What we know:
Chain A contains twelve helices and twelve strands. By secondary structure, chain A is α/β, with parallel strands linked by helices. In chain A, α11 (250-262) links the parallel β8 and β9 (272-276).
Amino acid sequence: MAVTLRDVAARVGVSPRTVSNVVNDFRHVSPATRVRVQAAIDELDYRPNLLARSLRQGRTAVIALLVPELDVPYFSELAHEMVLHARTLGLTVLVDETTGARAREVELLDVLTRTGQVDGVILSAIGLSGRALAGLRPTVPVVLLGERTGGSSVDQVGFDNVGAARQLVAHLLERGRRRIAVIGAGTSSAYATSNLRLQGCRDALQAAGVPYLPELTMRTERWHRSDGYRIMAELLTGDRPPEAVVAFNDVLALGALRLLHERGVAVPHDIAVTGFDDIEDSRFSVPTLTTVGPDRAEIARQSLDALVDRIAGHAGPARAVRVPFRLRVRESSQL
Amino acid sequence: MAVTLRDVAARVGVSPRTVSNVVNDFRHVSPATRVRVQAAIDELDYRPNLLARSLRQGRTAVIALLVPELDVPYFSELAHEMVLHARTLGLTVLVDETTGARAREVELLDVLTRTGQVDGVILSAIGLSGRALAGLRPTVPVVLLGERTGGSSVDQVGFDNVGAARQLVAHLLERGRRRIAVIGAGTSSAYATSNLRLQGCRDALQAAGVPYLPELTMRTERWHRSDGYRIMAELLTGDRPPEAVVAFNDVLALGALRLLHERGVAVPHDIAVTGFDDIEDSRFSVPTLTTVGPDRAEIARQSLDALVDRIAGHAGPARAVRVPFRLRVRESSQL
DNA sequence: CTGTTAGCGCCTTCAC
DNA sequence: GTGAAGGCGCTAACAG
């Protein structure tokens, strides 16, 4: 069996209480005792049982991060930032995947928040809205990632999807592109991010007096490279191909770039391509990808800070934090 | 406060024991009692406290996965497979990052294995060898990812790095390339993977009677896109550029591809480029990347199965599992 | 400054 | 088939 607090106490001839005080670096321990206890700890190679401590204290110093898919670069880069920042706060991160399915989001949230395993949850939700979340009555704080869509009862951290899309399309219009296709429109109203980005696109078109072309708005639920590849092929089957493509994430855009390369379509000469997220890949692709994305480190910082705040007992109304985003103009959109 | 087992018991008028039996689906509960208890559970919305259960049972159903960096595609794709397979086994995965630093690997391993938090650890080690690990005397099972380098005391799951590198270089030699550069050689003997891959390269050269060129063997500790980019630039400064480049992972290779594109060097016409890992990106890059990699799903399956086996108490000598690998010949190496 | 006591919520050995 | 009691390892009250 593992060495326990009692073993150490017995060895030194003090009470468990005193050993606990030393381990937790509390006051009211005489220097001499402290040294003797520490010696016994080292000698016996004692490690406190974190499970017991958590049960006793009612907190675990573990937080859960729920993302749709860990192998999608945006989420893995986000998880990386979370793990880094969590460490500075003394927190461990438990990562799990929801696949974006609403049922799975609800189930994980329910289990995690109500079984004592974690002190809080950061959820990158797809299916679940802030409003729906309220009905679940989680027993630990939850921070939602993604833009506020109204009526949320929990803190949210996101960026201005509408504004970002608007800026992106404005950039394309400035470069003289008018027939603009979209890859990644949602198939149902549940996909908030998708809808917001689409809204931004339409806003920019309208502001410029350029017609919105529904026939060039392509739907897809999965946002992987292969989806961008497949949908780009569809877009080329029409009589008049688009002059620019706005993909709703970078890997969709990279899939599209690949297909255009295979078809001998020059980017950006014949068609400009843009994405969302600003993943590392988009700085190294051929051509490099114009994209717009939030500061991920800032998302990690803001969401963890908000969560820690709530864990510490901060009450008050739900807040919505918007982190800044930046448009990165690269080769795929400028001649 | 949260609803406890006692609350449910009190509500129904039975002992906690009986409620526990229902929750854990044990025998020896009369159907009538079971129904009544279940009704109370639903009504009170009871969820067992997993912390208390773990403390009592001595097992948590959580395993830790330690990877160097979660934002490196190979590791995020691996983590994805782990999470998927772990779920089928009823396990939750706690992911943490080591940055590949030996001290951090040791520290995390020590804390995780000895504080009751997890039932086992899967470690994708860079700095730590199987031998060194034995000295740490972990109190929960550990499975090491990466090829066995001799004298390990724990189970390992990996693939034949030497054979894979040999096959890759043989492929390049077949295509008539002789001046072969390497990106990713290690700077110290600690980097087992790097050394094994280098060995495979040299084996293939020797078998073909082609001289090994140390001046084209480039060292780097970090294996990111920017490193491949930077080192490829260095390789072009020599009087005679290489005819092929073997990068020790795909992102290094993708960085090299990008630089070659910028310099107007045709791939594979002027220089062939290959990687390791077979990440999704390499199927969509321009050009697509020739690479060799293991079956990641199989790595996840084998390592989790081995870990579960040990957690269940299986003794016996350490085993080394080798999963199959496949050479994927793509555009970057064939004219 | 340190010891004693109690209990976090659960499961499990013993009784009945 | 069910109840009572004990303890996993730790820390928080309360003494002294």
